[in-house]
């Protein structure tokens, strides 16, 4: 609980700074996207946000009220007039382009193999897998085919934000995002991946090679690219 309070305070501070900077720039989307001050602040906010999501998700039905506030840094999003994913990816694209000057490929940054689960598994089993492998999403597979994707966002929006009885058994197929799932080829470059995430407002992209699942690319993989 103390750790959540510290994260909440840090996110509030960062959001306030971003709002102030955006106002200073007249909140123009094009300007804020390319502003180095906002870029640095947003990267810090992303790190805190992901940590908050993981902690809140792990609490199950006993999560405190502050988790609702930590689920989305609304103040920052409103200040930039952008979705969270679009803002993250815009920042990452700019930094990648500035620092590398070359088109690094998805296969260089993805996690492999992707962590998978069956559609008939329970949410408890899914959470256990996420914690075990320290991932924010699971690919739902059936007979070698991608049937959907289950993310920490699905868990928060569809499970922990509703009045679900702890005794109720919920299965992956009930809350997963069903196929067709947005995927990317392992030979694609990271700039393309960032654009795809922003376009479809997603945080995770299953990576394929000739139609076969070979890995997963998540927003946090961009941190390694730009750090």
Tell me what the structure shows.
The protein has helices spanning 2-24, 29-34, 36-58, 66-70, 74-80, 84-100, 106-109, 123-133, 152-160, 172-175, 190-200, 219-226; strands at residues 116-117, 137-142, 145-151, 177-178, 184-185, 204-209, 212-218. The protein is of the alpha/beta class. It has 2 domains: 2-82, no CATH class; 106-226, CBS-domain, CATH 3.10.580.10. Strands 1-2-3-4 form a 4-stranded mixed sheet. It has a 3-stranded mixed sheet with strand order 5-6-7. Strand 2 and strand 3 (145-151) form a beta hairpin. Helix 1 (2-24) packs parallel to helix 5 and helix 6 runs antiparallel to helix 11 (190-200).
Low-confidence stretches: none
Structural class per helix/strand content?
A: alpha/beta
Under CATH at level 1, the class of the largest domain stands as Alpha Beta
Count of extended strands: 7
Total domain count:
2
* Mean residue pLDDT: 76
CATH architecture of the largest domain: Roll
Residues in helices, as a percent range = 55-70%
> What's the alpha carbon Rg, rounded to whole Å?
18 Å
Helix-strand topology string: HHHHHHHEHEEHHEEHEEH
Neighbour order of strands in the largest sheet:
1-2-3-4
If helices are DSSP runs of H or I spanning 4 or more residues, what is the number of helices? 12
Q: Give the end-to-end Cα distance, rounded to a whole number of Å.
A: 29 Å
The fraction of residues assigned to DSSP E strands is 5-15%
Give the CATH superfamily of the largest domain: CBS-domain
Largest sheet: 4 strands, mixed
Query: Judging from the principal axes of the Cα atoms, what is the shape?
Result: flat
Kindly report the CATH topology of the largest domain.
CBS-domain
